[in-house]
Amino acid sequence: MVRSVGSFTLDKVRGLGDFALFTVRSLGAVLATRRLWARVARAVYEQGFRCLPVILIVGTFTGLVLGLQGYYVLNRFGSEALLGVLVSLSLVREMAPVLAALMLVGQAGSALAAELGIQRNSEQIAALDTMGISSCGYLVTPRLLAALFVFPAQTAVFVAVGLWGGSLSGSLLLGVDPGVYWSSVQRAVESGDVFECLLKAVTFGLLTMSICAYQGFHAHRIRGATGARAVSAATTKAVVISSIAVLVADYVITSVLI
Amino acid sequence: MTPFHQHANPGAQGGQYLLEVDDLQKSFGRHSVLQGVSLAVPRGSLFTVLGPSGAGKSVLLKCLANIAEPDAGRISFEGRTLDFHDPASRNPFLRRCSFLFQGNALFDSLTAFRNVALPLEQTTSLGRGEIRARAMEALGQLELGDYAEHYPGMLSGGMQKRLALARAIVTRPEMVFFDEPTAGLDPLRRNAVFAMIAKYQALVGFTALIVTHDIVEALVASDTVALLHQGEICFNGTPDEFASSAHPVVQSFRDSPAALRSTLDGLRRGEVAPEHS
Q: pTM for the complete prediction?
């Protein structure tokens, strides 16, 4: 019993160390990788442009629901004028970075894990190594750099459409004056809130894309599965661990900054 | 530090042997795959390692190509001992070698041209024009010039094999490792692949190290043949010596296709009863 607990713990600690080394090695390959920026641009397109419809849809409906719920809660206290404050601070501080990150994990992160898993299975990663090309630098580094741009940008889009959604349900459907709504938004959001939002977005981007890349890159290490099943297991693991990591990191950052 | 990293070989460069292997060992858990393999590959030769499936041929090749770390032993390239963990030792070696994978390992999201140009783009400081010229030259040599903009999935199995070879030779390597280049091919294509390797080995002048279990083609095309059996090299010599060797393992491996053919003929004629009927 003690042995199995010890072995499990050592295994997890070793895995964390391996993950940290993988991330550092991938970021460290920035200088050594040739023609990197073309691959970064492609990764920005894959993570950013392709995920934009999901961000727009989820952001709009999040804003709509926040406006609806917020209006009825504030209405109990006669404070409907504060709807803009509630919607904007909820979105900027929490909802936008977390939900945008979860959406990006679901779309871009899972695709990244699956792609790297297939490349591992078909020996494309080994082929890069035999050519003397850094497989981390060529395959992972552009994705991590792209995440540093894409996650904050998508979070900003999420906030914008979320605020618009809140205004739609609050002003258009429930009768809150649009001027009151938008002026309370303007008064509520401070630079510290924007900093918290962007810090979370950057952290979630780096963390989740590293996790997804790590899981796909090491799909051959999945126990009890090979081939397509290993890719499937690696992709599932990538999405689950990334989603949990977003929520844990959100709590840690919030508790430090609050 | 494993024993693999501790050896230093002060031998002179540019000797008769391009690649030398001494007492190479590799295990996976308790399963010992390589149990002290030693061999020397002459410069400019076509060297074939034969062995039955599961003998550890691919593991040996991956250790030699420096993509799998041996547990013990020494690998020297041009008299210099390779250190798996030292990029200063490993990277120059990798850039002077190429590896042709059993499944080709082509990048399915890149066109044939981009597949071939990739090693030049990433490991050299050549300009775009020079890269294009060299990649097209390699594709032309392998008669794939008209398929430069095709993706690997659009090519036949034989063309994919040629594309993989074009990618392997585009960097003008001194040594090319071939992992089961004829696996899964019919006899005609097996002949064609070995003929292609021999042709380009003569044309480009690289040293070729092939692992395969195809005896006939290997004996026809190779300069030197080694037989890997239970993790050890039990024979190393010319194809003629292999053909006349009285070593029991060589005899058993050499005669295996004939034995199989004779058993099948017997079964067809009803002379031999199947063991598990």
A: 0.83
